[in-house]
Amino acid sequence: MLLQVKDLHTYYGNIKALRGVSFYVDEGEILSFIGANGAGKSTLMNTLAGTLKPKQGEIIFQGEDITKMSPRDRVQKGFILCPEGRQIFPKFTVEENLLMGAYTVKDKNLIKQNYDKVFELFPQIKDRQKQLAGTLSGGEQQMLAISRALMSNPHILMLDEPSLGLSPILVEQIFALIEEINKQGTTILLVEQNAMAALEISNRAYVLETGEISMTGTGKELLENEMVIKSYLGG
What's this model's pTM, rounded to 2 decimal places? Predict the structure, then answer.
């Protein structure tokens, strides 16, 4: 088991955003969380990344309790978040954004390897290395955000709403690339409002409702579940 989360409770002021969330992620899998707006998906990702502190619960990564660990130390352990809304540095070039992603990596050869690897995965941004990131299209910015996260050499890559605001063709492309990243050995934890796209590539998935897990199963099982179809798949 790569990641185990036990009884996680996170608050915003007096509002309880996560209510006793427990789950696990196995090495090499794609695990998804689906749910409506306000279900607590991004809160979960930010709590796992360390930018939000839980009131209660444990986060165990590779057998170590990282619940109180700083976000930077989590990144150094290969526990990486690609945040919702991309959050690239618009006034930095593509190259500078990528190097910012590698700020915890000390091995220059590894940085070079990762740099070459992201351009193999995302050739669309290879020709834009000297271009300001803010001038890229929405799809290219998302590719840059994922590439920047990959520069940190993730063991587990958390993707928060990677398809947000993208056209259907680009969504298809991004999800194909997520599968490819996974095939190359990176475990994926995916939070996504596009439930169908997420479930189609997931080994397992959880449904999050008002801060609680209401259902779990394989991606295929949830795609065929009547409640999921009615609530999240437009059926």
Answer: 0.93
